[in-house]
Amino acid sequence: MAASYEDAAIGWVIYRDRKGDVGREQLNAALSDLGRSGIAKRTYEHYQKMLKLGYKDYVSINRLDLRHASDSIFDTADRARYPAGVAAGSATLVVPASTGVAVLGGDLVSLSEGYATLRVPNTAEASTVARAKKFNRGVLVLDEVGVERAVQVLEGVEIDGALDLVLEFRSLLETELARPTSTLTSDYSLSFSLGPAPSLFLVVEAMHRTFDLYESARVFSNMLLELSAAEGLAVDAEAAPVAKVRRVALSNPIEIVIAATPIVFGTIVYVLKHLPGWLADVANAASSLQSVGLAKNEERRTEELHKLEAQSMQLGNIKSAVEIAGLIESAGPGVSELLPMLPGMTPEQVRRLTALKDQTVEAAAELSMMSKEPLAISEAEPDETVQ
User: Closest Cα to residue 211, out of 26, 377, 364?
Assistant: First the structure.
């Protein structure tokens, strides 16, 4: 009999707990002792890939392939930018169905901005919710703080007689609502110019890049703090909460005053300082190319196109020019003590830090190319802040 999803999930727990030090035949023997079907070679290779990428909870082959189809460790659609998180107390899942409403109470064994794993009793009602394809959207209530958020049920995994429901938040959760995070935030002003009378599309695109810039820097900073805590370092900082917008001035230039932690601010400043000056030339070349295209000047259009292509080819070098070591060194006292430990980090830790660093650099570079003037970021004056 072919292995079911539950068989594969239990096999993954065995494989993960043994850190991959178990052959497929041994693993299948252990599954057989538990009354489960053995896994195929493809599933075993899937385990190897998940272990390499640092996963803890089981992810189906199709979902993992979708996450990494572009050879990226992150995919915005499935919130994989965010780590699994930690336990966060009791919660209740409410899922409407065609014949009624399922109400499932349990414990949050994992919570992040994008995902939650709710462990509930393995009842017939819970199994129906886990398998549902149409009626799989509901509301998760965090019992201890009274916060409600819309979620979608992605998977159900049977673990030790209980059922772990993997939930995806339909909009990012501000985890500080559920558990304490840093209150040591300050206000910082980020400004850039999109030129006179920019289109609404361009403004929205710039806001999206600003979000990517702050969020990637924030998750990078939080991972540094987690690694520092794991190494027993005394760090005078707490996990950075989601950045809060104090004020947006949609004039020229556009100015956004955002509340963030000093570590996030330091990370962004470091990245901006290391952006090459020719990024503005790339944007100017693109603008010139558009104007030339309208004029139908073939010779000049070819010249500008070659210039744009030559400079765009260098964009890939920006990410490698900004090193993780430099970001760690700029993070401040305590966190910078991680620097000597960088060579000893696991491949998964280095891979994740690199991906977050690259996301920060890419967002900064794209925002810089969109701006007609150099990006400016600084601490906001007290009278600039709207409380």
Answer: 364
pLDDT, tens only, 84-122 = 666 778 999 999 877 889 999 999 988 888 888 899 999
CA 99/CA 96 separation, integer angstroms: 8
* Alpha helices in the chain, H assignment, sequence order: 5-17, 24-33, 41-53, 61-67, 124-131, 200-230, 262-273, 279-295, 298-312, 315-321, 324-329, 347-370
Domain CATH number, residue 96: 2.40.10.220
- 353 belongs to a structural domain: yes
Written as six digits, the tokens of 23 are 């052959």
Residues 233 and 327 in one domain: yes
Tell me the β-bridge partners of 128.
none
Residue 291 forms part of a structural domain: no
Tens-place pLDDT, residues 173-186:
777 777 655 567 78
Sheet of 186-192: strand order equals: 244-250, 254-260, 186-192, 376-379
Residue whose token pair is 């082959």: 61
For the record, the structure tokens of 154 come out as: 């992605």
Domain extent for 114: 90-177
Strand runs labelled E in 240-311: 244-250, 254-260
CB 35 within 8 A of CB 15: no
Q: What's the pTM?
A: 0.64
348 and 378 housed in the same domain = yes
CA angle, 151 then 172 then 63, to 5°: 65
Quote the tokens at residue 359. Answer: 């996301």
Q: Is residue 349 part of a domain?
A: yes
Judged by DSSP in three states, 3 sits in: coil
